[in-house]
Design goal:
- Belongs to the ABC transporter superfamily.
- By secondary structure, the chain is α/β, with parallel strands linked by helices.
- The chain has two domains: 221 residues, P-loop containing nucleotide triphosphate hydrolases (Rossmann fold, 3-Layer(aba) Sandwich); 66 residues, Alpha-Beta Plaits (2-Layer Sandwich), CATH 3.30.70.
- Helices cover 38% and strands 29% of the residues.
- The protein is built from eleven helices and 15 strands.
- It has a six-stranded mixed sheet with strand order 7-8-9-4-10-11, with helices on both faces. Strands 1, 2, 3, 5 and 6 form a five-stranded antiparallel sheet that branches.
- It starts with a strand and ends with a helix.
- The structure holds adenosine-5'-triphosphate (ATP).
- Adenosine-5'-triphosphate binds next to helix 1.
């Protein structure tokens, strides 16, 4: 099996409104796949179809090579799913809920309890074990929902905006957990509208806008567009600016709050990269920061989303 998740021509109408257009998702085994798109792009609708909560209007879905919805029960044994609005069992305590979810996933009672104990600690709700779900904050509920997705040690995790209610520290912790789960060999499909988050945790990405998949692939391959705008800080910004201003390949240059922003003619990037560091070294100027002005993923988003709008 080449792909853990594969859809062909996946399409969804709500009434006459076409919400998802001919989606061909391909999620290879072992990747952290970021399903990235703005509010209303169709992420949740797609995820609901992947988990058989919603029927496609047409198109095919295969998970582990098996067809949804026909093989749903068999497939879902190996899938941990965390919905956007988690948890319905509001009157259960966390322990009861997680043990119950473990039992539903086919674990023996003892194993379910053992997993519950370990996962409550893992997601940071150990002290709240006997609290009812309805007494929790939305971030705490999201942590419990994450534990619930992990309860049967799934091969594939499908997470719908899992960090939406987490505080900044919770987000950092969560990203660390996703990275280590991927190292264990799990495949993770995670939706988000936050570029920086996807950049930190995902090595594969699918960009969705207005129900259309506009790019898909390994982040490192998609982002090989050369940047022409850079942020620079040196130990002598004045001199560095003076040097750059004289160069014909520098299209624009200005300094803002101690950072030089330079825009280079893309045809002469090689010259810029060769000459600028050489000059700094010759003058004993130290380079403190040198980075593309926009992050690579942000750049492809801006490019692709514009293309999408033009072709409408
Ligand atoms: N049951 C429904 N009936 C009609 N329209 C719907 C239904 N569910 C979703 N939609 C519409 O489908 C579009 C996509 O919604 P969806 O929730 O999939 O987006 P999303 O990418 O998950 O957005 P967000 O980031 O805000 O969660 C929206 O325009 C929404 O209004």
């Amino acid at each position: 099996m080449e792909h853990v998740i594969e859809t062909k021509d996946l399409t969804k109408f709500f009434g006459k409104r076409n919400i998802i257009y001919h989606l061909d998702l391909k999620v290879p085994k072992g990747v952290v796949y970021g399903f990235l798109g703005p509010n209303g792009a169709g992420k949740t609708t797609t995820i609901k179809m992947l988990t058989a909560a919603l029927r496609p209007t047409y198109g095919e879905i295969r998970i582990f090579g098996l067809e949804i919805p026909q093989k749903r029960v068999e497939i879902m044994k190996k899938v941990g799913y965390m919905p956007e609005i988690p948890i319905a069992y509001e009157d259960m305590t966390i322990v009861e809920f997680l043990t119950y979810m473990g039992r539903l996933s086919g674990l023996k009672k003892e194993k379910a309890m053992e997993q519950t104990k370990e996962l409550m600690r893992y997601v940071g709700v150990g002290r709240l074990a006997l609290n009812k779900i309805k007494e929790l904050s939305s971030g705490q509920k999201q942590r419990v929902a994450f534990a619930s997705a992990l309860i049967a040690d799934p091969e594939l995790l499908i997470l719908d905006e899992p960090t939406a209610n987490l505080d900044p520290l919770g987000r950092i912790e969560f990203i660390g957990k996703i990275i280590s789960l991927a190292k264990e060999g799990k495949t993770i499909f995670v939706s988000s509208h936050i570029v920086s988050e996807v950049e930190k945790m995902c090595n594969y990405v699918g960009l969705i806008n207005q129900g259309r998949l506009i790019a898909q692939g390994r982040v490192s391959e998609l982002t090989q567009i050369e940047e022409t705008e850079y942020d620079i800080i040196t130990s002598d910004n004045g001199k560095a600016c003076e040097f750059l201003r004289e160069k014909p390949y520098v299209r624009e240059i200005w300094e803002e709050e101690g950072t030089i922003r330079v825009q280079v003619d893309p045809r002469f990037l090689d010259e810029f990269f060769l000459q600028f560091p050489k000059y700094l070294t010759s003058q004993g100027i130290r380079l403190k920061l040198f980075r593309p002005h926009t992050s690579p993923l942000e750049r492809i988003l801006m490019e692709k989303f514009n293309i999408g709008e033009e072709s409408d």
